[in-house]
Amino acid sequence: MAEQIPYCIADNLLMKLGSAVFHEIGLVYGVRGELRKLEDTLSTVRAVLLDAEEQQESSHAVAVWVRRLKDVVYDADDLFDDFATEDLRRKTVVHGRFGIGQVSDFFSSSYHLAFRFKMGHRIKAIREKLDHIANDISKFNLIPRVVISDVSVRKRVRETCSIADKSHKIVGRDENKREIIGLLMQSGDSQENLSMVVVVGMGGLGKTTLAQLVYNDQGVVSYFSLHMWVCVSDDFDAGALVQNILRSATNEDVGNLNLPLEQLQKRLQEELDGKRYLLVLDDVWNEDVKKWGQFITLLPVGANGSKILATTRSTKVASIMGGDSPYIMEGLKDDESWELFESLAFRKGEEKMHPNLVAIGKEIVKMCKGVPLVIETIGRILYFKTQESQWLNIKNNKSLMLLGDENDILSSLRISYDNLPTHLKQCFAYCALFPKDYKIEKKLLVQLWMAQGYLQVSSDENMNLEDVGHQYFDDLLSRSLFHKVENEDGNNVLSCKMHDLIHDLAQSIVKSEVIIITNDVKIVPERTHHVSLFNKPNEMPKVLMGKSIRTFFMDSYHSNNYIRNRFISNFKCSRVMKVNFPLHKVPTSLIKLGHLRYLDLSHGSFENLPRGITRLKHLQTLKLLFCSNFKEWPRNMKKLINLRHLEIDGNNELTYMPSGLGELTKLQTLPIFLLGNDIWDSRHKRKRMGRLSELKFLKNLRGQLVIEGLSNARGGDDKEAHLETKQYLECLVLSYRLLKESTQESEEMVSVMESLQPHSNLKELFIHDYGGARFPNWMMNDRLDLRLPNLVMVHICFCRRSQVLPPFGQLPFLKCLCLFYLYDVKYMKDNPSSAKPFFPSLKTLVIDDLPNLEGWGRRDVAANQQSPSYPCLEHLQLRNINTELCLHLISVSSSLKSLKIRDCSGLSTLPNWIACLTSLAQLSIKDCPNLTSLPEEMRTLCDLCTLEISGCPFLSERCRKEIGEDWPNISHIPKIMIR
User: Fold this and answer.
1) In terms of pTM, does the model score above 0.90?
2) What is the distance between the alpha carbons of residues 516 and 533, in angstroms, rounded to a whole number?
3) CB–CB of 580/605 below 8 Å?
4) Residue 34 and residue 32: Cα distance in Å, rounded?
5) Which of 462, 366, 374, 359 is nearest to 410 (CA)?
6) Spatial separation of the C-alpha atoms in residues 472 and 449, rounded to whole Å
7) Which residues contact 793 (CB under 8 A, 6 or more apart)?
8) What residues does 441 pair with on adjacent strands?
9) Which of 617, 634, 769, 826 has the maximal Cβ count within 10 Å?
10) What is the pLDDT of residues 924-936, one digit of tens each?
């Protein structure tokens, strides 16, 4: 059987061997000659890896050769890590800091003489093994090949978002959709409240996509009063299914409630009883009649016409589910197949320039047998290729020629792996670590790839490892090996999933090197290196002991003390460690895992970390999320000099940040910085804690930064955060969050805020509990649109003393402005004579509890037509503001879709011009006791579908169904709630 080639690790070893750092290590430890010989031999072997990858498909002997090579490469990787760790320790001991200097009396230590002796023997042993492997190159006639591995950001005609969107291009399924919708809506037996439609087809045909088309069809949405979607996959557990159905029905995570099955069933009964519902069970594999019977008895029958729509690859599964006449899904027709392939393999209009490629392409399409997943995958491969020989290589591929049943599809998909650049192969195959249908977070995956050494540094000085990882992810996405699940604004993909067959492909490549532990796993092969757990096993397999485990990823809760106390210490080769059990104390054995790059201790119950954790010199990612008792940092956190991501949240007892954090200049992720008061330890010694000046040199911080406890800011050190230099920060939260009334002077608060001016790239700004009498000059500047031109969200609350708001109306891209509890604010600063648009991009405006607000900028611009105002406003929420301003703001935008008014006691009626709000879909009025009527013009609001009235006694009486005086004005609204 073919073995996965460790391209990335071999390349990283060669890169290290050629670096200045290892040149110095060779001199210091007297192993320069051995390292040079090792580099020469490894270079020779690396040159023939492409040929070895092909030959091992037909040669068992070459596959064994590759297996031997992997073992040596992993050993060498561990060795180089040990060298680097000791070298960092040496520099710490000799210099007392972390720079490069002269070596002093280092060699006089017997410990270091012993270390040199030991490492010399390890290098020699590895080199001898590698020499034997190199000597076999001629035996197998392995030929050197040039590897072209472009790891820089590739400039494409298409953006990632358009490629991802095109990956969802749907062809030839309109008729299937109509037929299935017909089956779902047909009445059938009037006595049958719940019936089933089962779609059966081989993998890759697009059953899930078809089910999604049906599920989101407007007619289906209207016909069924409740819609639920559950991906079943191959773990058919009745209790878990009921939980997932409830989650889909209620948008509530019932799994955290730990309810027994009987209570879950009762909750489900309450949610579904009397409703005509549609339940989609996607990707069902269960062939156990008893399990299906247990599940179906838990499912309420609902109202007449309720339906289950299931998808499966097996007619036997369909029969067990009661689908005696399943809907059989076929492949695409020839013309449909070509339409899909052409859209993926050619840029628009490009096919006319390459008639030779079109002819070859049509032959390839016929060989794909109408399977969309195969067509899509191969089309993606050829999109980057314009040479006829490249297309012929695909056409003549044996796997594609033999395409017939589902096993052949997996072989044909192997083409997509074979055509990956070498730097992407290990990254893709590593994803077998996650179970099928698992939502993989992009940031997590990049951190894991980085920990394993799979990311190759680009020659572009502006790119770092994370940038490279994001590009790798986007490349795999563009080749349809991933499909996106979640996007943020700007179409940046946050997470992905893998199609089941693509997951099977990854698993077939890594074989037993990557294993997901389940109760069925009793034996773990010797060469298993990556292990994950996603369901709680009955017993942790002790056969993992002594294995060379490089990844231990536990995503399920486990309370086994055996793991806590003895298991971890055996993973001395681990690069990745994620544990999930009730850690009241972090095992000190963790500090012996010197190769660790990624450590996730989230959900632990510990109060502190072991002091020795700072020995983990290679640690890149440390996650401490939801550690509710965590309250004390270890000393000398600054020793974690390779730390790039320190992920913490507010779910802990921390009151400060450690001193020296500012020396971790590689740090990119630091979600929270806690500014604390001075504290003393048990020996009455003052404990040093980090001030805001720790942020000064952290220029690589990215994403979000929350600074809490600004009321504790004191003196010059707390005015040197230099946020204006942090160009990668996207979200900044400045929080004073007081537990008691602050003693800090207002002017001192203003002075501190002045020093916290962010970089102009900032997108989101939150200010909480600020007690200054005015906002800082960088916010009040008349050219705020030039100071912070990229802001899209501003959120300000509990700033009790400030009276004037900054000129937010200038901001060109501001989409959301939320103002809460600003009791003293009287007006918003503005330049009335400006010809620039007023709130040109604003979509959401929330003004909550600003009772003294009188002025709101250019209030008469609509009449004067000086410049457009609020052209994009869709959501307006007003609470406890004066009546005149309330009426004005309601009138500013005809694009308004949602309007919520609350606690406006001076409001007596809505104006007649409410008819101008032609797009209004939701109207909510609460706690307006003097509101007595609704105008007749309400009848013209044809798009209004939801009206909610609460705490308005006069209005509620006038809007009583059928008999209220205002009922004719609102009777056309589909959903009316009056309390």
Assistant:
1) no
2) 6
3) no
4) 6
5) 374
6) 10
7) 763, 764, 765, 814, 815, 816, 817, 818
8) 495
9) 617
10) 999 999 999 999 9
